[in-house]
Amino acid sequence: MPSTQDPETFPFDGSSYRGPDPRYARWRTEEPVTRVRTAGGVDAWLVTRYEDVRAAQADPRLSRALACGPAAPRIGGTMYTTPEMIISMDSPEHSRLRKLVAGAFTQRRVERLRPRVQSVLDGLLDDIEAKGSPADLVPQLTLPFPLTVIGELLGVPPEDLRQFERWARAFATVDDRAGGEASLEGLAKLSEYIVGLIARKRSSPSDDMLSELITARDQGDRLSEPELVTFGFTLIGAGFDTTANQLANSVLALIGRHRDQWETLVARPARIPTAVDELLRHVNLFATDTSGFPRIAAEDLEIGGVRIAAGDAVLLSLASANRDGTVFEDPDRLDVGRAHNPHLSFGHGIHHCLGKHLGRMEMEIALTGLVSRLPELRLAVAEAELPWHVGEINHTLTSLPVAWGA
């Protein structure tokens, strides 16, 4: 049963990229669905146990659309998606849009990109090795790698990539302390740019994802102009910023606190695909420990035996679910050889990540390149000196100085 004490304030100070606040372990056992007081002063239900989080992700009674409407309870901060974004929709609108875009994200389609993604990574590592040790992996690898890939997927000309990066970074780095102004400005600039890019692709289509989405059809249906624009910057936020942060945080985990696991990958690079899933499970990307997006109960329901009333806000803690000891053996240990790993980092249900195949491939290619070409990679500063930006969505490393060799 939920506690009768005053709810604790969410998000919790004890969480970091290393993992969720220690209180989650107690809640998973004693109170897996608990009431919390959010930064906006609104109470919400926080779901912490794996089986409950997984079931809730697929429950159509928990609405993303209601969480984005004008009457939605404000849980605090500025990270509120618009109703036009696919991550904000419920069925049937979500199913219609997903059906139109899904073909661009199949595993077969993504595998066709592997040679070019490998080429991008090789070029960046060539530059790093040419400049020599030390290096800063954030501006030299973890940011430009996924950005270049997303830019090429959308068909952004190479000469536009630098400006594109500035706008994309501003859009993705949501920060309540700045009132969200930089993010909104980045969004406006990106939207304007994508409108022009769509116009050019209509007149001169090429072999890129945006051209494919422009021509996508399903029984006569097609994406509207606003849907194309919205999907473009949704792809930027999810495919660039999330991948950049996951890669940087994962490299830090491996060459820092879990050096033995880095050495395992150097000796056995064939384990890297398994390691990617383990890093997705173990490394806590989201600053709030949740998926970043609340849901609203569309009707009365129960989660984990707790009654949730229609209109209540619900937060699903992916970080806590991914450390559930009833599902993962020794859950707080990073184990790149972990065989059983049904983590929820890509979601479950209708909102499971469309770009998961691309994200996995980028992580695999990047880690394979690093362990094979820079096996002696190490931190160039003490971990405590690393600069972080903790916004409303991600734990973001702004610099990752590394060294190798003598």
From TrEMBL:
Region named Disordered: 1-24
Keyword Iron: yes
Cited Pfam families: p450
GO molecular-function term, one example from the UniProt record: oxidoreductase activity, acting on paired donors, with incorporation or reduction of molecular oxygen
Keywords: Heme, Iron, Metal-binding, Monooxygenase, Oxidoreductase
InterPro entries in UniProt: Cyt_P450 (IPR001128), Cyt_P450_B (IPR002397), Cyt_P450_CS (IPR017972), Cyt_P450_sf (IPR036396)
PANTHER family referenced in this protein's UniProt entry, alphabetically: P450, PUTATIVE (EUROFUNG)-RELATED
Family, per entry: Belongs to the cytochrome P450 family.
Protein name: Cytochrome P450
Source organism (scientific name): Streptomyces griseoviridis
Lineage: Bacteria, Bacillati, Actinomycetota, Actinomycetes, Kitasatosporales
